């Protein structure tokens, strides 16, 4: 039996899946580093640090720029000090250089029209997620939005997906996770739900196929072949 036919709800990752947000994340990272009298870093380097939320992004940036070990007490102290600055800078320029990937809006509209329940499950802090969805005209499409700080645990933990299953009274076979990172695929596998991996986003420079999602797509529009009758 075609397992795609069971799907009733879809959880979408945000950064690297719906929105290319690295340019603004890099700008906020660099504004914070420069304030600390540290050297700024390239956008490519920031892209390789995105995936585990804002705090881990800045932890990686600070460790790189200062040569302090990521888990050292000294780094943790400085991190606590600079996180509010990063949150400030990013909040000021959430979508100055960020953009929606091709076909995201139209495909999401078609999926919603076809009757799927849609959610965003991101590791980005919730306070940035909702304004970003608003700014790109995606706000009305999702019945649930979970940020990295909405629950006790974030992806790759299955908690956000299990929360959706409970909230929507669905079985794991009825939910699909779509994302660009191994954190999305690991969370899906841990929750026993199907997943699609996208190749164009951020995955620490690794091939998303290595995480073995149920399907790999090169463009967002390619997910439609599994979900919409053509
Ligand atoms: O903010 C991050 O580090 C990653 O966010 P994502 O889960 O939407 O990819
Ligand atoms: Mg992502």
Automatic annotation (TrEMBL):
Record carries keyword Translocase: no
Pathway: Organic acid metabolism; glycolate biosynthesis; glycolate from 2-phosphoglycolate: step 1/1
Record field: catalytic activity: 2-phosphoglycolate + H2O = glycolate + phosphate
Active site: 13 (nucleophile)
Top enzyme category: hydrolase
Keywords from the named record: Carbohydrate metabolism, Hydrolase, Magnesium, Metal-binding
Organism domain of life: Bacteria
Entry annotated with the keyword Lipid metabolism: no
EC number(s) recorded for this UniProt protein: 3.1.3.18
Residues that, per the record, bind Mg(2+): 13, 15, 180
Cofactors named for this entry: Mg(2+)
Record-linked InterPro entries: HAD-like_hydrolase_sf (IPR050155), HAD-like_sf (IPR036412), HAD-SF_hydro_IA (IPR006439), HAD_2 (IPR041492), HAD_sf (IPR023214), PGP-like_dom2 (IPR023198), PGPase_prok (IPR037512)
Protein task: Specifically catalyzes the dephosphorylation of 2-phosphoglycolate. Is involved in the dissimilation of the intracellular 2-phosphoglycolate formed during the DNA repair of 3'-phosphoglycolate ends, a major class of DNA lesions induced by oxidative stress.
Record family assignment: Belongs to the HAD-like hydrolase superfamily. CbbY/CbbZ/Gph/YieH family.
NCBIfam families (alphabetical): HAD-SF-IA-v1 (TIGR01549), HAD-SF-IA-v3 (TIGR01509), PGP_bact (TIGR01449), PRK13222.1-2 (NF009695)
Protein name (Swiss-Prot/TrEMBL): Phosphoglycolate phosphatase
